[in-house]
Structure formats: structure tokens, C-alpha cells
Amino acid sequence: MIPVTKPFLPPIEEYQQYLKDIWSRNWLTNNGPLVNELELKLKDYLSVKHLLFVTNGTIAIQLAIKALGLKGKILTTPFSYVATTSSIVWEGCEPVFVDIDPASCNIDPNKIEAAITSDTVAILATHVYGNPCDVEAIDAIAARRNLKVIYDGAHAFGVTYKGKSIFEYGDISTCSFHATKLFHTVEGGCVVTRDPELLKKIAYLRNFGHDGPDRFAELGINGKNSEFHAAMGLVNLKYVDRIIETRKNLSQHYDRFLDTFQGVKPALTEGTEYNYAYYPVLFHSEQLLLRVVESLNQNWIHPRRYFFPSLEDLPYVHKDFRCAVSDAVSRRALCLPLYDTLTNEEIDMIFRLILRVQNN
After folding, report:
1. Three-state SS for 358?
2. How crowded is residue 134: how many other Cβ atoms within 10 Å of its Cβ?
3. Is 300 helix (H, G, I), strand (E, B) or coil?
4. Helix ranges (DSSP H) in 283-343
5. Paired residues of 52 in beta bridges
6. What does the pLDDT read at residue 12?
7. Other Cβ atoms closer than 10 A to 341
């Protein structure tokens, strides 16, 4: 079987060495030494000022909303994973969808201003597939209209824009370290900010609000992560450059077929150093996509309709209007298999099957 992705696992002996150290210390969670070490190494690798390791990428978004004290309407994209929207609703805010740019699949900054009302408090934009949003336009709108900005960078580990970490934009950026991501800690995520006061607040929020053993500075939750997850991250971080390079080479092998493919890839934002987190394609029609998926599945190949459906279809959001571009893109978008151990021969087979379907 060829799945859409496979988690990278390092040599087990390297992970076991960390486990031995955890056993010897008997310190399993509550901001242990490995969590602190991982945070320091991630700050260095990603070239960011402040970073906190948290339970997962969804909690990261919820902590960001809470830390910024947001109450009201948050402009966001309908073309993202459900956690982007569900986190807004979970925190008692109202998502307002702004349609996407058909080329990049990211939120369209040209449509943001028209969606702003007196109840709008923030913009929550996703770097879809790790492709940077138009951060300069979004940040300029936010500054002009006094809005906060959160970037959902779940897919964007290691991505830079004009030589700068993509996580250095906005008030807060988040990332996911889920097992399916190119860098993972099995489960995990992080919150990044340039503001030391925000960092301090988020540190309280992720640990029940504790300010000492018997003092509480904030209303908090349990957003911490464990030594076992940090250990996986520390081992995997040593391999991430090689993983990205391998995925780049595989993506370039896929690219050889695009001249004969009835569809396109999303356009990469100019100035981006990409991480090759996914290999998305946009078919010319949903009918062709469905026929291709059926053929691939029959041959034990499992791509993913990522993202589908467009998030206006969620049962717990207002359905005042449709985002026509997002709806159309979501029906035609498919992520093809991409992972560290995929081979060029398997890519050849995948695209032979795609071309066989589209040419019949």
C-alpha cells in the first residue's frame, strides 16, 4: 500500500538512549529538561525569538486566541484543516470566511477589507500546504485596521520568506508537530511570537496558569507536552534537513509529469524557501479527480482530498454566504503521496495511473 504519507521514524537506538535518560531521572512531564532543550534547539533551527512547545497544533491556535484576549469575529480561510475554524468557535469567537486566491489557495488579501466590521478583532490565516500567505498585505491591513494576526503554520516548519522565518510574522504563529508532518514529535506543536510579554502569558496559559507551586497568574489549561515527545523531536531534528531534501527531490520527480497533466500545482509565493510538506495538485474538474482517486485506490494507492469540503460546510458555522473559489478549489484539490521512503518508481506508477484515467 502507498498511503498519502508515512511518519519518519529515526533509528530506534537513538530514541532509546533518550528513554534511558528519562528513566534515570524519573521526570516525565511538567517542563522537563528535554522539553527545554527542544525549545532552545527549535528556536535556533527556525531562527525565531520566542517559542513554546505545546500539546498539539490545535491547542497552539487556541492558546494564541486566548493569549490575545480575542472576543468577536475572526476573519479566516475556508480552505484549511477543520482545526483552524473549530479553534475559533471553541474559544467563543465567530469565524467569518474570506475567500481564497485561486492560484496560491491562501486567503485573498484583496477580499479582507470588505469583510471587516466593527466586530472584527483579528485575522487567522493559514499558510496552506506550507506556502506563505501574502503576509505583507495581511500585516498592513491589520495595522491599518487595528486587528490582531495569527498565522496557522501547521504545514510550514522550516519555511522562510525573503530569508526570514515565516513564523516571525503576525502577532502569533503556530505549528503542528503531528506524526504526519515532516518534522514531528509524535503529537505536538508550538507557539511562536516576537513579543516577550505574550510569551510569558502563553507560558502561564499552557500550565494551568501556575505562577509557582501554589500561585496562579492566569486562567490556564494543560497545554504542556512530555519528555517522551520532546525526545522524539530531538532525534528527528537531526534528520529534518535530509528529510526536506529527499522530499524536494521526490517533488521534482513528480513535476516531470505536469506537462501532460490535466491540472496545475498551486502557485508558490515568490521569495519562498519551501519545505515540500505536501504535493498538492488541482485537477481541471472534480469528475476527473474522483475517477483518478477510484483508480488509485483500486491499486492500493491512497491520496487525500486535502482540504475537502470547504469549511463553510461545517455544521457549527454561519452559512450567510459561499466562498465560490474555495468551494471550487476544494472539489479539485488532491494531495498525492509524499514521504521520506517513497521512491521514484512508485511516483512513476502513480502518474501512469493518473494519465491512464485522464486520457481515456
Report:
1. helix
2. 20
3. coil
4. 286-298, 324-332
5. 191
6. 98
7. 10
Q: Looking at residue 319, what is its pLDDT?
A: 76
Q: pTM of the prediction?
A: 0.96
Measuring CA to CA, which residue among 231, 183, 209, 186 is closest to residue 35?
231
For residue 133, how many C-alpha atoms fall within 13 Å in the half-sphere facing its CB?
36
Helices (H), the chain: 12-25, 33-46, 57-67, 82-90, 135-145, 196-205, 227-237, 240-255, 286-298, 324-332, 344-358
Residues with Cβ < 8 Å from 55, sequence gap 6 or more? 187, 188, 189, 206, 222, 223, 224, 225
Question: Are 87 and 107 within 8 A, CB to CB?
Answer: no
Closest CA to 10 of 242, 230, 236: 236
Q: Extract the residue ranges of the chain whose pLDDT is less than 70.
A: none
DSSP code string of 254-294: HHTTGGGSSEEPPPPPTTEE-----EEEEES-HHHHHHHHH
Q: How far apart are alpha carbons 138 and 126 in whole angstroms? A: 12
Percentage helix, strand, coil, to 5, in the chain? 40, 20, 40
Contact between residue 67 and residue 203 where contact means Cβ atoms under 8 Å apart: no
Burial of 237 (0-12, 13-18, 19+ CB in 10 A): middle
What pLDDT was estimated at residue 360?
87
Residue of 194, 193, 203 whose CA lies nearest to 31: 203
Write down the pLDDT at residue 230. 98
Query: Could you give the CA distance from residue 8 to residue 182 in angstroms, rounded to a whole number?
Result: 7
Contact 131, 104 (CB under 8 A): yes
